[in-house]
Predict the 3D structure of the following.
Amino acid sequence: MTSGSASRPPRPPGYWDRIDRIVRQAPPLTDSQRAKIRVIFHQPNVTKEAA
């Protein structure tokens, strides 16, 4: 996302700029990390409701 995106909820001044800087500095995800995230977001709703 770019700074000032309409889909971002309102936050204190500078909040999203700080988040953008942190994200840019983070190392890229490994394939294993991507796979785990993909599994979490593609779980059936029953599993999500139980969590």
In short: DSSP finds three helices and no strands in the chain.
